[in-house]
Amino acid sequence: MRGARKRLCSALVVAYGLFSLYAAYTVFLRPRRPAAPRPPHRDRRGSRDHVALGNEEWNPWEGDEKNELAASQQRYEANLKMIKNARSHLEQTSLRVQIWGKAAIGLYLWQHIFGGHLQPADVTAQWREGSQKAGKTYFSFITGPSVVPGYFSVDAENVVLVLNGREKAKISYATQWLHYAQTLIHTHKIQHVAVVLLGNEQCNNEWIQPYLKRHGGFVNLLFVTYDYALVNEEDIFQWPLGVATYRSFPFVEPSWSMLHDPRSYLCNFLGTVYKNSSRETLMEILKQDGFDKLCWIAAREQWQPQETNESFKNYQDALLQSDLTLCPVGINTECYRIYEACSYGSLPVIEDVMTPGDCGNSSIYHSAPLQLLKTTGAPFIFIKNWKELPAILEKEKQMSLQEKIQRRKKLIEWYRNFKAWVRQKFINTLENSFLPSDKG
What we know:
By secondary structure, the protein is of the alpha/beta class. Among the domains are: about 95-225, P-loop containing nucleotide triphosphate hydrolases (Rossmann fold), CATH 3.40.50.300; about 245-420, 3-Layer(aba) Sandwich (Rossmann fold). It is built from eleven helices and twelve strands. It has a seven-stranded mixed β-sheet with strand order 2-3-1-4-5-6-7, sandwiched between helices. The protein has a five-stranded parallel β-sheet with strand order 9-8-10-11-12, sandwiched between helices. It is globular. The chain starts with a helix and ends in a 6-residue tail after the last helix. It comes from Calonectris borealis. Keywords: Transferase. This is RXLT1 xylosyltransferase. One of its GO terms (cellular component) is Golgi apparatus. It holds the Pfam family RXYLT1_C.
């Protein structure tokens, strides 16, 4: 009995298989006869003409079948293209880099130089992140108070750590991050580390040197602000100071009016005037020649780290409404004001003198100070003494609006190209250092 059931089941399976093969042959392999032309359209109110098919077979669903076949082919080709693009993307992306933004200068890197976006957009958010592909590298960026050592996901074997080393308290915090990165190196969680450092304004950055690979440490590359004397273009590179992102200075998109409208003031200076500084000399010269009536001047005796909404708006308006922005030296020659003026097309007039400290010596480094800006052809006005300013302002008074428009365009174009150049150099340096060499 059991054997009979087995034979019956086998027979049914064989029969089903033969029927399936016949159906497949009928649908896919058997040649179709050409379909007869469809009858001409008739008004539904009239009688229908008889269509003589003769020996021809008319398939009323043939048009639908062709449309479905064409749609299926398009879907197949679209999926194939998507797979090829994904495979190409994976092949081209050879490096993954995670940037830990633990200093405000990281926002200049990501939003101004990389042109990247962050989610959420709220600058007070505890956690913000973004990502983009550039060159052979996929970059991700994280920042915010919630980014704490050991309490976030390390998503790449290559890390760029953005740190503040301007003063002792900041250095102490920065070293905690370096020790965390060092632990990840030792436990093989990451392979390479680069540091973007907001350096000390007098270039006292000795504390970072033991962490560099050339001194037995683990940091492959260092990008540091100001004219640091140890910049060698091999593993230590100069980095632009940028705009004051810690005071929420925005990314500015040039507008038609910014380029073409006449501006109300010859120049501006809104800032702190320190005792016995060249800034006092600047104020005296402006008052003596009456230029303070033609310029937007707002001096204060004490530096304020935070802006009020009103003071910040006044500062932005001054940049937008002035043809020139005066940039006297502070603790260092390089200042945020230079880059902020470029954002609004207001030409920086820079006091081109070395400040005290350990930054590049102009007798050795012929471009110092501001050698990064000078070597990239910054179209600024550089002066050695503010006594040169009256002649500059007199010349400014004689310039036509068209000449000023062309100058603004040149300045904004240079700044855009400068940021693009810094970005590409940064990417190339990381890829050349982090990617395995093809040499045997």
